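Budget justification aside, the reviewers requested a transparent look at the raw inputs and outputs of the sequence design task funded under Objective 1. We therefore reproduce one unedited record. The lines immediately below are the structure tokens for a 468-residue chain.
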């Protein structure tokens, strides 16, 4: 599984819930809406296959056309399998099975049953247009080639069938008398489907544009704040925090980062937002300097791929750090593994420049990307951060436990610190400690907190430890 800080979603987006909380597992509203819509489309599509398959099956059985009845059985089976896959939330296989079956059926009908004559044109191929658009909508968020290729196959088949009049054989051709009514039904249904798909697409674009406009305003009007999630060492001391951006939308309330960070990334607004986050983080470090229990904290700041790719990123960071007066070693930049796919040499050079000034680096969400171990050795990192996806189930899933253990060993062999994120239970904490992980972040200790609550947490923690 690969996750980019760009927020690129993969597969048909999964999960549910519109709520904006500090739970990293919560889904952005748009993704949840998209998923519900995909499920609905798949349920309708599979129901359609079953009903049509049964209907035609009975019709052709009564007419004694057994080879076609056999094909209808395939239709009904495909519909039922799609239904089961959808109920099990395996949306991508369900979508591909449904689209594939519909494609084969429509082309088959066009080439065997719906043969054009001088009086009645072919009409079944008109369904390929809305289905191509549907495929484009449903497969959004998948790899680009899947997203575009499936839709293009539908459109190409439409073109071929609209521009030709032949069939494979006329043995099964339906009589014109039957096709005349069918033409009207096909055309009305296909145009109505196309209209609905276009309406949904347009609604998505409008929602995105509105959010983008709101995001611009939010940056200008300063609607963002930073929350701080404590990072704890093996003795239970707070050693630092991760700064996490929060957007309080005037109407919608708290918008989760999983919704606005990808949009900021796509629109380029992440550059302004990232700049603000860095300045705010440095200002906070300066403020913490004045309190004994926070004076030594290291603050981790997430950096997006687009931000890091800017040619003057190093100069910007050094200028912000320099102007704030914060010792650079108190700042740690979190990069994600998926950023390392392109232009690794440039990334290494930038990291080295910043590292030479004392800025630290952590590799966030480690284990979810495909970074080569050879590169890992060359990156001037300080820390690996085990992704919460492996921490979540490590007590019940032996694979996750093995991965967590392997990441800790790998980190130590490379001379890096290892921190686990998303630690929610004592059991996870104990397991991670037993395999040599010495730093933790997660709800077991604290959710991300507004600064006042964070300060109180650290103060309380320090006094509790002083008493022990
Ligand atoms: P991340 O950097 O991996 O941050 C960790 C996420 O996990 C945070 O979600 C945090 O609230 C959540 N989390 C922490 N502990 C637990 C736990 O025990 N259980 C669960 N279920 N979740 C936990 P958040 O704040 O919603 O941030 C999501 C992502 O948004 C971050 O993932 C990061 O990639 C991005 N992000 C947040 N702030 C910024 C920012 O200022 N700049 C950039 N570029 N990205 C940011
Ligand atoms: Mg992070
Ligand atoms: Mg992370």
């Amino acid at each position: 599984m690969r996750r980019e800080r760009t927020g690129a979603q993969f597969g048909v987006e999964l999960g549910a819930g519109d709520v904006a909380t500090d739970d990293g597992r919560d889904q952005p509203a748009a993704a949840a809406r998209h998923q519900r819509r995909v499920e609905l489309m798949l349920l309708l599509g599979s129901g359609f296959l079953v009903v049509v398959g049964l209907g035609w099956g009975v019709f052709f059985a009564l007419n004694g056309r057994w080879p076609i009845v056999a094909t209808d059985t395939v239709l009904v089976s495909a519909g039922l399998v799609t239904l089961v896959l959808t109920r099990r939330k395996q949306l991508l296989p369900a979508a591909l099975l449904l689209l594939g079956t519909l494609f084969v059926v429509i082309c088959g009908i066009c080439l065997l049953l719906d043969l054009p004559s001088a009086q009645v044109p072919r009409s079944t191929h008109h369904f390929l247009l809305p289905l191509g658009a549907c495929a484009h909508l449903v497969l959004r968020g998948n790899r680009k080639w899947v997203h575009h290729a499936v839709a293009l196959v539908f459109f190409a088949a439409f073109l071929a069938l609209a521009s030709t009049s032949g069939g494979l054989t006329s043995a099964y051709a339906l009589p014109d008398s039957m096709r005349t009514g069918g033409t009207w039904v096909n055309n009305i249904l296909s145009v109505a489907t196309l209209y609905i798909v276009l309406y949904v697409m347009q609604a998505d674009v409008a929602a995105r544009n509105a959010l983008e406009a709101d995001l611009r305003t939010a940056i200008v009007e300063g609607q963002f704040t930073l929350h701080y999630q404590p990072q704890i060492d093996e003795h239970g001391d707070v050693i630092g925090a991760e700064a996490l951006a929060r957007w309080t939308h005037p109407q919608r309330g708290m918008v989760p980062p999983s919704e606005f960070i990808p949009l900021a990334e796509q629109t380029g607004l992440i550059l302004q937002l990232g700049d603000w986050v860095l300045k705010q983080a440095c200002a906070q470090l300066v403020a913490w300097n004045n309190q004994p229990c926070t004076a030594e904290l290291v603050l981790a700041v997430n950096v997006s791929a687009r931000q890091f790719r800017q040619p003057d990123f190093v100069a910007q960071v050094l200028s912000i750090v320099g102007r704030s007066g914060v010792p650079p070693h108190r700042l740690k930049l979190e990069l994600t593994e998926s950023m390392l796919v392109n232009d690794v040499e440039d990334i290494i050079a930038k990291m080295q420049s910043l590292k030479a000034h004392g800025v630290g680096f952590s590799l966030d969400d480690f284990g979810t990307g495909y970074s080569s171990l050879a590169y890992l050795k060359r990156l001037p990192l300080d820390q690996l951060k085990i992704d919460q996806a492996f921490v979540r189930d490590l007590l019940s899933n032996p694979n996750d436990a093995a991965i967590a253990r392997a990441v800790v060993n790998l980190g130590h062999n490379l001379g890096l610190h290892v921190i686990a994120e998303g630690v929610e239970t004592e059991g996870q904490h104990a397991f991670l400690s037993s395999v040599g992980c010495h730093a933790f972040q997660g709800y077991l200790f604290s959710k991300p907190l507004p600064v006042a609550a964070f300060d109180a947490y650290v103060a309380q923690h320090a006094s509790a430890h002083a008493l022990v």
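The beta strands are 224-233, 238-249, 253-255, 298-302, 331-336, 360-366, 383-386, 417-421, 439-441. Residues 176-221 form the longest helix (46 residues). Computational costs for records of this kind are itemized in the attached budget.
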